[in-house]
Amino acid sequence: MLSLDDLTYSYSQSHESPIIQGLSMNVHAGEFISIIGVSGSGKSTLFKLIAGLLEPNCCEIHIHGEKCTTNRLGEVAYMPQKDLLLPWRTVLDNCLLPWEFNRKPSRGHKKEVIANIQRMLERFGLGKYEHCYPNELSGGMRQRVAFLRTLITGQDLLLLDEPFGALDAMTKKEMHRWLLELWDDLFKTVLFITHDLEEAILLSDRIYLLPSEPDQGVQEMHVNLPRPRHYVMNYDPHFIQLRQDLEQRLYEKTFI
Ligand SMILES: Nc1ncnc2c1ncn2[C@@H]1O[C@H](COP(=O)(O)OP(=O)(O)OP(=O)(O)O)[C@@H](O)[C@H]1O
Question: Which SUPFAM superfamilies match (predicted)?
């Protein structure tokens, strides 16, 4: 689905002090992959590079096995940290935006697209809110609308940048349950940035740890817990061991 080979990126024009250096990564169709790393390690920068908002200094990016040209926007769906719902548009009209930006006969007529969004809103527990404005919704509801808008793009590869970072613990738990059920049915490939180690373990097939120093190399961890996943797994000794392993790798300290 996605491969990066020796990706390097620096914000400076002279290509000095790279934020990301020699990063290689392979993502298979249908995988759920979390990206973790300390603040400033380049997680959001990586997403901007994959989405084509930034161009790498060197590296080839392949999506669906094809080498990407300079314009990758439209190959992936990107949900940034803030929900970026337009406050003057209703829930339904916010969800229509991807279709409005990319009108093609193959993407259906407006009526069909609206009917599809309405079906999805029901599925997302937002059926009653299609005519509401973003300021009338709770934090969790706004995130679900933003996620639905990301899905409506029709892309198979979703880049989700800390989608639940601003939510309280209870709402976050509800969103995890909801996302796990939904992801089982959707067969989408997800790259998911998070600072929450338990969230990363609960949701992911694999986790990539970005290094705090770019030249230290990315680490990869397999989450070999069975699916479907449930919250009770948090208390499973294997889950606790994975969490401890992740903490040690992230902070390079022993916590026992
Ligand atoms: N537009 C920019 N110009 C120059 N430097 C930038 C720019 N955007 C980000 N940076 C720098 O790049 C580094 C990585 O930033 P990035 O936002 O990718 O980190 P992050 O791992 O996503 O951080 P966080 O977890 O805090 O969201 C930081 O040092 C940041 O200051």
Answer: P-loop containing nucleoside triphosphate hydrolases
